[in-house]
Amino acid sequence: MDLRIKALMASNVFLYRLTRGALGSRMGGQNVLLLHTTGRKSGKAYTTPTNYFREGENYILVASNWGKENHPAWYFNLMHQKTAAIQVKNQTLKVSVRQAASEEYQRLWQWVTNLNPYYVRYQKQTKREIPVVVLTPEK
């Protein structure tokens, strides 16, 4: 990962945590949450700021990785662990994780690309299908 992007992400996580989401919860007109995962190989804890969308109680993530050929690391960790924690502003939630498929994927992809047209550009840059991940708060 580019050092500038790493530095931006680290500063966003710092500000988000420090202010309990008052700063860092919006970037580029998009809502941002902090995604807490465990490395599938390393076992190390990771916190990643990522854009999200809300559909009912669910949080929708798009694993675009800016149109690069590989899925982002957080995606692989999520698919391995199937549960995670997210911080949305000042609230931390445990969530179950699943990848959208078939008709749900098509519906959500259409919806998120209408809200953020950059995803269409990212999809054109890569041969992989960009995953859409659904996070559902556990009760």
Features:
6-stranded antiparallel β-barrel, 139 residues, 4 helices, single chain, Pnp Oxidase, Chain A, alpha+beta
Secondary-structure blueprint of this entry?
Layout: H1 3-19, E1 26-27, E2 30-38, E3 45-55, E4 58-62, H2 73-81, E5 83-88, E6 91-99, H3 102-115, H4 118-125, E7 132-137
Task: Explain what you see.
With 139 residues, the chain is α+β, with helices and mostly antiparallel strands. The chain has a single domain, classed as Electron Transport, Fmn-binding Protein, Chain A (Pnp Oxidase, Chain A, Roll). It has helices at residues 3-19, 73-81, 102-115, 118-125; strands at residues 26-27, 30-38, 45-55, 58-62, 83-88, 91-99, 132-137. The mean pLDDT is 94.
Low-confidence stretches: none
Radius of gyration: 14 Å
Q: How can the largest sheet be summarized?
A: 6 strands, antiparallel, barrel
**β-strand amount:** 25-35%
Instruction: Tell the overall outline.
Output: globular
Number of domains: 1
Quaternary structure of the protein: single chain
- CATH homologous superfamily grouping: Electron Transport, Fmn-binding Protein, Chain A
Q: Any idea what the CATH architecture is?
A: Roll
Mean pLDDT: 94
Briefly note the CATH topology name.
Pnp Oxidase, Chain A
The CATH C-level class name: Mainly Beta
Tally of contiguous helical segments: 4
> What is the ordering of alpha helices and beta strands?
HEEEEHEEHHE
Our measurement of the CA-to-CA distance between the termini, rounded to an integer number of angstroms, reads 35 Å
Helix content range: 25-40%
Structural class: alpha+beta
> How many beta strands in the DSSP annotation?
7
Adjacency order of strands in the biggest sheet = 2-3-4-7-6-5
